[in-house]
Amino acid sequence: MKKLTSIICLMALAVMALASIAQAGERAGAFSISPFVGGYGFDDDRQAYFKQNRPLGGLRLGYDFTDHFAAELVGTYMKAEYKATKHNVGVYSYRLDLVYNILADSQVVPYLAFGGGGTTIRDERGNSHDGTAEAGGGVKFFMTDNVALRADGRYLVDFMSNHLSRGRDLARNWEYSLGLTFLFGGRERAAAPAETVATPVEQPAAVTPAPEPPLEVPAAEPTPDHYKYCITLHGEFDIDKAIIRPEYKEEIAQVGNFMKKYPTTTAVIEGHTDNVGSYNHNQDLSQRRAEAVVNYLVEQYGIERSRLSAKGYGFTRPIADNATDEGKQKNRRIEAIIDCAFDVQQVTPPDRLCMALVLDFDAGKADVKSQYRNEIAKVADYMKRYNTTTAVIEGHTDNTGSPEKNMKLSQQRAQNVVNYLVDNFGIERSRLSAKGYGATRRISYNNTPEGRQKNRRINAVIDCVVTK
Fold this sequence. Notes:
Blueprint lengths: L1 H17 L11 E12 L12 E11 L4 E13 L6 E14 L6 E15 L5 E15 L4 E14 L8 E17 L41 E7 L15 H13 L4 E7 L6 H23 L6 E5 L12 H7 L1 E8 L11 E6 L15 H13 L4 E7 L6 H23 L6 E5 L12 H7 L1 E7 L5
Helix pairs in contact: 2-3, 5-6
C-alpha cells in the first residue's frame, strides 16, 4: 500500500503542476487509453477468507461514440491473499463498460458507468471463473486537451462459483482507482469565445498610458490614392482539406485575370472558416487554404509570388451567424484583397470597394470643409456610375480624448460626409449609412503626430451589388 500511496501523491502533484494549462474535455470519435492503479475491497461476509484492501493495476481502452457516451474494455490484475495461509493467488478481471460523461465539454468531467464481465482466480488447486456486474462513476480532470487525471470508484457484484463457496453465491466488493486518460483523434472542439475587452477608460493627465498593443492592419484597409478591390470567393473545399476543387477554379480566375490585366496590383489572399473545430485547427486550415490559392495563382496565371501574400484568420472574422448551415457556408470563404493604384472608375465593379478619403477636420469638430469636395466626389462619381451600389462611410479618430467623446465625434464626422454626398451630389440617402469607430480601429501608433494623423480618417466601403 505504501507504493500505491506514493503513486497517488505523484499524480496529485502532476495535477497541480499542469492545472494552469487545463483545457476541455471529451470529444466524439476519440480513442482513449487509461492506465490506473488502485485498491480492491472484498466482501467481509462472503469472501472473508481473503485479506482486505489489496492493491491492483489495470488498463482501460475506450472509444467516444459522442461527446457524452463512450464504451470501455477494462482489464485488471491483483494478488489476493488468504488470511489463514498467507497464500497468494492471481486475480484477473475483464469487463465491458458503458460510460456517460455528464459535463463532456468542461475541464472537470464527472461520469457514470456500468457494465459486466468476468473474474478468473488462478490457484494451484484449480482455477475458478466468476461472472461480475458493476456500477459506479468518477471524475476526469483535463490537464491538457488530450491528457486527464482520472479517479474512479465501482461497486461490484461477484457471482461466485469457486470451490470455496457452497454452490453459487454473491459477493459485494468495491474497487477504487486513480490513473491517467490519454485521448487520441476525434472531432476537434470549437475554441471558447474570446473574452470581452472592456471599454478603455480615459487616463488622468498625470498617469502614463500603457503601451499600445502591436498593430495588425487589416488587408482591406485602403491607403490614400489607392483602392482596395475585394472579391469574395465561396468555393468549397473538402472537409479538413486545402486542395482546390476543379469547380472552384472559375472563381479564382476572377483574381488571376484581373491581376494579369493590371500588373502593378498586389493582393492579400485571406482564408476564413466557420466555427466548427478548435481555434488552432481553424487558424491552420484557413492559412493552408489561402496558401493553396496563392500557389494556384502563381502556377496557373504566372502571377509573381512577390505580388501575393496569404493570411489565415480561422473563424475570427465571421460575416454571418454560425448558428445556421447557411451562415457557416458564408463564413467558409476566401477573400482576395487587391491593392489598386489607378483610376478605379475604369475597373469592372468588384464585390466590395474600399477607398480612403483624405479629409482634415478642425480639432474636436465634425464640419466638412468645402476644399474636400473633390475628395468626396470620388465616392459620388463611382456610386453614380454604378447606381445599385450602397456604401458605409466609416469615421475613425486617434486616441486623444475620452473613448466616449471619440466615438461620438467619429460618428458625427461620418454622418456629415453622408450628408455632404446627399446634399451636394444627389446620392440617395437610402444608399448610404454612417458608422463611427472612435479610436478602436487604429492603423498606426498614437505616440507620434504622424501616427495620430493616419488614424484620423474617413473610409468609404462600397458594396457593389451589380450585374457583372
